[in-house]
Prior knowledge:
The chain is α/β, with parallel strands linked by helices. The chain has one domain (13-22, 29-198). 26% of the residues lie in helices and 16% in strands. It has a 7-stranded mixed β-sheet with strand order 1-2-4-3-5-6-7, with helices on both faces. Helix 3 (110-124) packs parallel to helix 4. The protein is globular, with a radius of gyration of 15 Å. It starts with 15 loop residues before the first helix and ends with a helix. This is DUF1643 domain-containing protein.
Amino acid sequence: MHIPSSDTIDIEVLTFADAMVSTNDDYDKKRWLYVPDFYSEYRYILGTRGERPLICIGINPSTAAPDDLDNTLKSVERIALANGFDSFIMFNVYAQRATNPDDMERECNALLHEENMKAFDYILGLSESPAVWAAWGNIIEKRPYLPDCVRSMIALGTEHHAKWYSAGKISKKGHPHHPLYLKKDTPLDPFDIEKYIESL
């Protein structure tokens, strides 16, 4: 479990550029992309390195780290490989760690969001045709600022000509399915992110 120690506005948050400076030798940097590369109250990126990554988007990070994936990320990795990708990148709409989304901060930290979008721009640029898997489930409703964070992501995705996908059954409210309980060979389906965001 990770329960936030405070709102992120009350702690030092590294910019994405500073967080990219790696100082941790406790994991294989040729295999893992982990930013920042230490366990903290926030996480920009966690994933494996490859030529064709599947970018999975959750709402916010929990406890996972290199070589210590939680069940959600294990599912993400299996589905990425089953759909022909050679790697996965776990990204989140909001970068604050909280195992229970009810513990997320009530107000958006503008600096954390801005740096998180720089991280998203970076991972979109890792492949010529970025594939983005919307996978946040109903948790998007937990905080009023989350849809606006997604809108920022859509704009960046458009710049990079990203293709959006979902996996599993769409909820009655139109939300894309969370990865946790999906079968390992669940196919990816095209997801109309523009139409979806209009409903939020």
